[in-house]
Amino acid sequence: MTNLSASSPGNISQAITNITMDGEVLSVPLKVSYIITIIFNSITCPITVALNLLVIMAVKRRPRLQSYSNILLACLAVTDALTGLLVQPTYVIWRILQILGGINTDSIHNLHNLCLVAVTLSSALHLMLVTCERLIAIKYTFLYPYLVTTLNIKVIVTVFWVLSLCCTILRRPLEKIGDVILIILAIFCIAFIVMSYAILYKETTYQQNRIKTQQLLQEEVKKFFKEKKALKTTIYVVGAVLLCLLPGTVLTILSSIRELNISYSSSWITTIVMLNSLLNPLVYCWRQKEMRQFVFQISSPAVAAVDSWNERLRR
């Protein structure tokens, strides 16, 4: 390992910006950055797994939560739980080995990248599926019972997982082509979600105007507001996911166009991407009282305050 104290200022400056995959010489700022992300992911990892497993259990055990929209959110929670089980632990191990130095980290780094790409791509596809379900429920109400069924959900979720795994496995052999395929899929998911919510916004505005100007059946009005509440939940989930995935997507596009020194930013961008898996179950619990009660088990003052605030918003 290089002795930085005996090096000239020019060599020190060069060493600070230099990073290799194994046996590397890390600068002090880079080590600090890695240590902070290691601590953060080590703390959030078990919380992420626990919260997402509780969300899955809540949907499975509570009949009132077993709507198709919640079932799809539970499928998304599976990908989030895998982030805590696979992606975050491999990241922590990889960074620890880098800090220790003199250890070949290629294997654990490749494993981490495989898990990260597979789970992130699967999350993006599941997010598109959640959005599609809301689009059918509000825009194409009469087709909903025929298109959104348990069998169809199982088939599509399976196809999305197979697609994610195939793209991940073939990424390295295909090199640049593999990156291009991932970018195309990411852009397609984002474009589909944006267009879907533009249509949903227009449709919900139209339905609200109908309620104000026409005498609709009480059941129809009640159903609309129920679907609208589920739509708001997916909007918050989509917003959280896109906010966390956007930096990583931009970094992937830029790094594929030209070579960039991303040593300092990559650890934080990866951490932000993984943070989304913790935010999603918190959004579910915030938006649904019964799920919140199941996950947290007790009605603490904080939970009661949130319930009271949500009731005021409904009024």
Provide a descriptive summary of the structure in words.
This protein is mainly alpha-helical and 315 residues long. It has a single domain (26-314), classed as Up-down Bundle (Rhopdopsin 7-helix transmembrane proteins). Helices cover 83% and strands 0% of the residues. It contains 11 helices and no strands. Helix 4 packs parallel to helix 7 (176-213) and helix 8 packs antiparallel against helix 9 (263-287). The protein is globular and about 75 Å long. Mean pLDDT is 77; it is low at 1-24.
Summary tags:
about 325 residues; mainly alpha; Rhopdopsin 7-helix transmembrane proteins; 11 helices; about 85% helix; globular; disordered N terminus
Number of domains: 1
Shape: globular
CATH homology group: Rhodopsin 7-helix transmembrane proteins
User: What is the strand content?
Assistant: under 5%
Beta-strand segment tally: 0
CATH topology (level 3) name: Rhopdopsin 7-helix transmembrane proteins
Distance between the termini: 66 Å
Instruction: Determine Rg (CA atoms, Å).
Output: 23 Å
Order of helices and strands: HHHHHHHHHHH
Report helical residue fraction. over 70%
Average pLDDT across residues?
A: 77
Which architecture would the CATH scheme give at its second level? Answer: Up-down Bundle
Number of helices: 11
Brief characterization of the structure:
With 315 residues, the chain is mainly alpha-helical. It has helices spanning 9-16, 28-61, 68-100, 106-139, 144-147, 150-174, 176-213, 218-257, 263-287, 289-296, 301-314.
